[in-house]
Amino acid sequence: MSTTTADEKASPEETVTAILSAAGLTVSADEKATMVRDFPLVRAGADRMYLPELEHHEPAIRFDPTDFYPTR
Amino acid sequence: MSDAPILTIKDAAAALRDGTTTSTDLTAAMLERTAMLSDALGAYVVVTGEAALEQAAAADAALAAGNDLGPLQGIPLAIKDIIAMKGAPTTANSRVLDPEWGAGTDAPVVARLRDAGSVFMGKATTSEFAIGLPDADKGFPVPHNPWDVERTPAGSSSGTGVAVAAGLALGGLGTDTGGSVRGPASVNGHTGLKVTFGRVPKSGVVPLGYSLDSIGPMARSAWDCAALLEVMAGYDPSDPNSAHAPVERYTEALDGDVEGLRIALPVPYFFDHEALDPEQRDAVLAAVSTLTGLGATSTETSLPHADIAKDANHIILVGEAYAYHRNNLVGRWADYGRWTRSALARGAFYTAADYAQAGRFRRMFSEAVAAMLTEYDVIITPAAPAPAEIASEMNPSKRLSMPNFTGHWNLTGLPAVAVPVGLSSQGLPLSMQVIGKPFAEGTVLKVADVLQRVTDHHLLQPPVEALFTQAV
């Protein structure tokens, strides 16, 4: 059985190729080159949000099921 | 007539009532000016001149008959072209949007302005789908900054910002998901208010980020924005996020008094970022000094993780936008502008966990801001890191590494107004941002109004006369 470790992280090129393929997006070579170049910055922006102090925070999503039953 | 005088809504409303002018004359002059600046500034996608003159004539007749509907009656306004308006197409500046989208209907906010007797000049240019940058290849007008046409008018409510600055409307509507009202207001040199999330119903608007979007007023002065908001605000059942909060008489909140007002200045990130233009920073601090000279107090403080808030807003924005655009991005990639599709596609690069985590961050950051706003009445920051950029040097990649001072307040859903605070050494508008508690639009507009009572930055006019061309 094959395994993957953190040391075998895919390159931005491989990751972007896989994401575009999974998303079904057909982009030009120039556009893809820009996406590959920007990918580490894009990813870093998301990774920075995983702060330890958020452990006890729920997402701020407003959804009230009673909104759908106004005459309840 | 080639150069209609630029008036505020307040002054125009007075002039319409004392007989100095008529809505028909005001509208005709602005239509002529619009035609002469159309090529140079690209403020409108569609000018609805005939309908505007009919509305103006109706306003004049009503006023003459003693039927006074308030200060917006007979006032020419620009409507951002992602907002539905009867009698004009809604294109979102895109080949992708169904041409029948919103056809024959007014968004609730447009209907309210129509009922108040406003005159609609036309549909103002927007960044395609309120994101990205203009792409001249797609056949839509490219908006230009009237202070320097080589520079960006910012987005996405570019056309409304340009129209207000250049005297092609006295006010108008923008939408704001990460700064799209305040950005154009800041670089075009006028006032623009991002409202509390839910304050103004956003149905009838092509969505960008569902949990961040808002419609806001754009005009020269805080008083004008207050007058617009009085009509725009209020619950509407067609928007599931519309708030039931009572609507104030915002113009009456502008009492000129900031005695005892407590101002927070969050220094880290907002005032010490290496990309912050010193002239922008100094102009904002000078405006704060003006306010403290009038009785306000200011305190330097800090807001934890202000740098990360920009990323959280971006992830939520592109995640929600990607959900809306996904099928068209797959099937019609080439029909989108190159910058638009690149910006939207970022939504595919984040995971569902990232979106949820951004929601967790959103709660923590909102709590931190709420704590700050228990000690202070308003927060003040620069509205943008710098004056208008050179348009040809802009691209979505650059934005990844630039600071942003506006998305924080979409993330937290708070009201925030961009206020002119002078011109740079290059003659470009500088701007301050005032943020308040939920539904405290009256407070942030009051601060802006106080500044505008003792300065004339909001009345400075861009040098557009050299751009006039013969109307066709």
Can you put this structure into words, describing what you see?
The complex is a heterodimer of chains A (72) and B (472). Chain A has 72 residues and is mostly helical. Chain A is built from 2 helices and no strands. The longest helix of chain A has 19 residues, at 29-47. Chain B contains 15 helices and 11 strands. Chain A binds chain B through residues 16, 19-20, 22-27, 31, 34-35, 37-39, 41-43, 45-46, 48-51, 53-54, 57-62, 67, and chain B through 211, 240-241, 305, 307-308, 311-312, 314-315, 326, 329-330, 333, 338, 341-342, 345-346, 348-351, 354, 356-364, 366, 397, 400-401.
Total beta-strand segments of chain B: 11
Number of helices of chain B: 15
Radius of gyration of chain A: 19 Å
Q: Strand tally of chain A, please?
A: 0
Q: Residue-averaged pLDDT of chain A, rounded?
A: 88
Strand order across the largest sheet of chain B? 1-3-2-4-6-5-10-11-9-7-8
Report the biggest beta sheet of chain A as strand number plus sense, adding barrel if it closes: none
**What's the number of structural domains of chain B?**
1
User: SSE string of chain B, helix = H, strand = E?
Assistant: HHEHEHEHEHEEHHEHEHHHEHHEEH
The SS-based structural class of chain B is alpha/beta
- Biggest interface: A-B, 33 and 37 residues
Order of helices and strands of chain A: HH
Indicate the low-confidence ranges of chain A by residue numbers: none
Mean pLDDT over the residues of chain B? 96
Q: Count the DSSP helices of chain A.
A: 2
CATH topology of chain B: Amidase signature (AS) enzymes
Topology:
The complex is a heterodimer of chains A (72) and B (472).
Chain A: H1 12-23, H2 29-47
Helix pairs in contact in A: 1-2
Chain B: H1 9-18, H2 23-41, E1 44-47, H3 49-64, E2 76-80, H4 108-115, E3 119-124, H5 158-166, E4 171-175, H6 182-188, E5 191-194, E6 215-219, H7 222-232, H8 250-253, E7 262-266, H9 278-293, E8 297-301, H10 306-331, H11 338-345, H12 352-375, E9 378-382, H13 396-401, H14 407-411, E10 416-423, E11 429-435, H15 441-454
Parallel strand pairs in B: 2-3, 2-4, 7-8, 7-9
Antiparallel strand pairs in B: 1-3, 4-6, 5-6, 5-10, 9-11, 10-11
Helix pairs in contact in B: 2-3, 7-15, 10-11, 10-12
